[in-house]
Amino acid sequence: MTAKLNPDERKQLVKLLAGLPEFQSKADRIPLVRDSVMGTPRGELLMQLIDLDGPPQGVASNVIARFAEYGDLGTGQEALQALLAHIRDYVSSDAWPFLDGFFQRQGWVESGQTPEFPDGVWRDPRDYGQVKEAVIGENTLRHVNFLAKGLKAALAVVRIQVHGKGWGTGFMVSPDILLTNQHVIASEEDARAAEFGFFHELDETGKTRDGEVCGSSTNGLLCADETLDYAVVRLSGLPDFGSPLRFNPRRMHLDERVNIIQHPGGDLKKISVQNNFIAYADDTVLQYYTSTEPGSSGSPVLDDDFRVVGIHHSGGMLKEPGTLRRFYRNGGTTAMALLQSMAANAPKVYKELQQD
User: Is this model's pTM higher than 0.70 or not?
Assistant: First the structure.
C-alpha cells in the first residue's frame, strides 16, 4: 500500500523537508534520510533509488514522491510514515499539527509519538559551545567487556505494539515483569491489546533475527503512574531472554554518560552510546543528550555497567536557556523515583522486584 497525498499535502511536505537546515546539502541529507529507514528490510533498496544531489526544493520533491510510492519497508510501516516520524523532531513545533493530522488522514499509527517535557524547560544552563567542547574532550575508551554487557542487557529490551495506539519500548525487570511508560500502556485494555516483541534486531551477520512475541497475563497491568510516566506489566508465554535488567537507584551527575537501548519508531533494536551526557539530574528528573526517536518511549536509561538509572519518557524541541535557539532534548524519570513510587503505591510489586 502506498501513501495517498493530495496536491496541497504534497506541497506542504516538500516545503517542510526542503526548509530543514539538515537538508541544505547532500552531505547533511544522506544521514537524515538514511536514518529514517536504517535497519529495515527494504530501506537500503529505497536509498539506492533516491538521488540526493541538487537544490533542496527539487530533492525534497523527489524524496517525498519516492517515499510515498514505495510502500511498506518490511516492518509494517510505510516508507513515508517512517520519514515523517523521523523529521517531526527536526521541524518547528508549528508544523506538528499538520503532520499529526496527516498521519490520522492516512490511517497510520503515530509510531509511539511522545509528548514534550511536561514543563517544557531544558535545565542545562551551559550553552551549546560548552557542550561541544565537553564532547570533543571526552575520553571514549572503554573496556571491551562493555560490549558483552550491552549485548546481554539488550536481550531484556522489548518492542511494544499497542494495536490501535502505537509503538513503544519496554524492558524486563524480573523474569516476567516489564517496565514501560504509562503513556505507552495506560490501562488494562492497552495491556491486553499489546504485543511484546523480543529479539527484533540484527544478528552479528547483519541479518534480521526471528523475533518472538508474547502477551500480557490476565490482569497484567500491575501498577501505573501518570505523573512519573511508568507502567508495570506482567507478561505470559515469554521466551528465554536471559537475565532481567537491574536497577542502580542513585542520583546521576552532570556529564556522566548514559546509554539507551531502544526500538525507535517501532524499528529494529538499536543502542545509542555516543555523546550521551547527563545535562541535569535530581532525585526525580533526568535530562540528557542521548539520541532517541518516537517509539523509544519506555526505553531503559542505563549506566556504563548497563544497570537501570532511569526510564526514558519524552523528547522535544526545547529552547536553550538564555537564547532563542532550539534543540532536541530528551528526558526521563530516575530509578530512585520509580522505586520509591512502587514501594509506596504497589508494595507487592516492589517486594517482588527486590527478590529477583
Answer: no
